[in-house]
Each structure stands twice: as C-alpha cells, then as structure tokens.
Input
Amino acid sequence: MEPFSTKGEIERAVLVGLAHREQPVEKLEEYLDELEFLATTLGLNTVKKFTQSLETPNPATFIGSGKLNEVKQYIKDNDIDVVVFDDDLSPSQIRNIEKELKKKIYDRSLLILDIFQSRAQTSQAKTQVELARYEYLLPRLTRMWTHLERQRGGTSTRGGAGEKEIETDRRMIRNQIAILKKKLEKIDKQMRTQRGNRGSMVRVALVGYTNVGKSTLMNMMSKSEVFAENKLFATLDTTVRKVVIENLPFLMADTVGFIRKLPHQLVESFKSTLDEVREADILLHVVDISHPQFEDQIRTVESTLAELDAIDKPTLLVFNKIDRYPEPPEEEWKWDGEINPALRLQDLEKSWMARQDHQTLFISAVNKTNVEEFKKTLYDKVKEIHSKRFPYNHYLYELPEDQENKED
Ligand SMILES: Nc1nc2c(ncn2[C@@H]2O[C@H](COP(=O)(O)OP(=O)(O)OP(=O)(O)O)[C@@H](O)[C@H]2O)c(=O)[nH]1
Ligand SMILES: [Mg+2]
Output
C-alpha cells in the first residue's frame, strides 16, 4: 500500500493541538513544531496551526464545537486537504470530526505509521509496519477511509462507501493481519538464526530519539554507509556492523529512533527489530543536545527502553551535536535571580557529569569533536565485558602501550 495520499501533489495541512490537564499549554508549541516536522517528513505542507485549552478533551469531537467550526471555516476558505491532530483520536472522535470537516483526518499515530510505511525498505520492516497499520485501522474504519483506500486500490465506489463495504474491508483486514503475523514469525526465526551465528562477540546498540545522529555515528565508527538525513525516521531497519577499536572487535547496531507517543502497535510489531537493543550488552544512548527539548527526549527514550525491558543495561549517554548547541548570551547565564539561568555548554556538561547514573560524553559526530575520547570510553566498556567473556584471548585487545608496559 502507498502512504495515505491520493492527490499526487503536495497536500495542504492544518495542525490541531490541545492543551489539557495532562498536557500543559507551555509544551503545546513545541509539540506542534514536532508534529509539523512529522508532517513535512510525510510530504505535507503545514499552512496553519490551531490550538485550544480545555480541562479535558471533548469526548465527541476532541476539541470544542466552537473551535471545530473555526477549523471548518478555515479549511473551506484555504483549500486544505488534511487535518492533523497531535493526539490520538478515538474511533468515534475520528468519525464525528470527519463527518463535520469532510477532509482526511490524521492523528499522530496514523501520521507516524504512514511515515514508517513510506520509509520501510526490507521485507521485515514492510511487514511490521503493515501489521501495525492494520491493527491501528481495524477499530477505526470509516466511510471516508474505506472510500480513499478503495480509490487507491482502483475499486472506488462513487460517492463514498456504505456499511457493507466497511464490513468487507474489516474482514479483509482481519485476514491480512493473520497472514502478516505468520509471515513475521517466519522472518523472526530467520533473524534469530542469523543473530545466533554471530557468536558471542560483545554487542553495542545505538539508541535514541529520532534524528539525533545515531546513523551518522554508526557511519563514523564503522565506515559503513547507513542512510542518514535530516528527516524523522531515516532508519527503520536495524543494521549491524563489526567495529574494531585498536584490536578489540565488537558488533554495533543502528536501529530505529524513538519519538514521543510512538504508537504502541508499532512498538509491538517492531519488537523483533528491537531485539538488537534488548539483547545488547551495552547501549549508547545518543542525545541531540542542540534540541531545545533534549531532556524530554531523554525521558521518552528511557520509558521506551523500559517498555522493552532494556533499561538496566550498562549505558553511555552520548550528547551529540555540541557544535550546534546554542550558547546563551552572557547576561542570561550570569543571571542570579529566581529563574534558572540558561546554561552554557560547559555548565551543562558539569551538571550531567555530576550525576552518577550514567557515564556521559559530549561529542560532535559531524565535526569529529571528542571522537577519540568517545572511542576510548567505548573501548574500555567493551573491553570490560569482552575480557570476562573471553578470559583466555586477552591478547586480542592489547593496546600498543600495554605491550610497551609489559616489555619493561
Ligand atoms: N550539526 C550536527 N549535525 C549532526 C551531527 N550528527 C548528525 N547530524 C545531522 O543530524 C541529522 C540526523 O542524523 P541521522 O544520523 O540520520 O540521525 P538518526 O538518529 O539516525 O535519525 P533516525 O534514523 O531518523 O532516527 C542529519 O542531518 C545529520 O547530518 C552533529 O554532530 N552535528
Ligand atoms: Mg538513523
């Protein structure tokens, strides 16, 4: 299936975000910026962002009816194709909103699912995404959706689909889900065998929020050509490369990035891709320190790791993109009032290094700043595990200076 686009040209979108009890209004702008980045990644052109504050979301239409009317008027006047909500909508909310606006409705999960779908390369990734997308759509089938999907498949029913078509589609989707699950089981088995054949080399996995520079770091370490670009979810498939620092060989895996509110269907169906993370000996948690929300991103990654049962592994926290860190002007960091001063990079480094939970490193993968320090730290970590696992072949990782010491 193609991503959800029938027009064949860049579609115009409005975004809708809601502040409520669990989602403070101060965060809304940042969330919508990220949503716009997601929309751009899928090829949508964001024309306007609507926001509203409610105590709790409206159970019928998510936003209030006044706001919905405002959106309706705007999309009429401005030739809008798509309306994107920053939160997940319930099946009935989607139906009600769609009935009112008569446009394609995306919620955050569907947007992410469609991006994944447009980026999946291998049979495994394609199957995983398709399964997640069907699981997501099954309870949410609407007349509009059925109509659009059928148009894409060339079996359009003029004037929209009826209940009967929707029921047929439901049955078709249930069948597909069963087939896809079987197919995945088979692929998983092959992957397990492949991983088994790799022996007991130490395994390091790059993890982190999307677009932080995991693949760039992987390419730097292994001289491989993993695809890296300034878009969200450039990587979907796990790539594993053998890396050697000094004489010490180990395996390094680059995997899919995480994001706030990653649809749980995706986490579920990507579990086998994420086995590389679950089975890793060491995690390199890469952080984009130039991103204004990097601390939120760290928390998102940590809770996703917890969901994967991988939170307790030895972890190096690698702060990347220090070349882009926005240093605050002097009057801001010297501020000694009640509000926290903006931190300079050196202050930030100190405060993170003072924490005891993880070892931290500050690098720029693009400018190659502190890369030697990074390699040395990683080397020490890998060596620790390697020497326990292979107590008799310690010669493998001898550094030139170790040899010199021995000759003395
Ligand atoms: N300025 C700067 N940009 C960087 C650095 N490292 C990576 N980038 C850029 O950040 C963007 C994302 O890099 P990727 O390596 O694709 O990031 P990723 O974490 O693999 O992203 P996903 O696969 O989408 O999760 C690219 O445009 C890189 O060139 C860095 O140290 N400094
Ligand atoms: Mg990547």
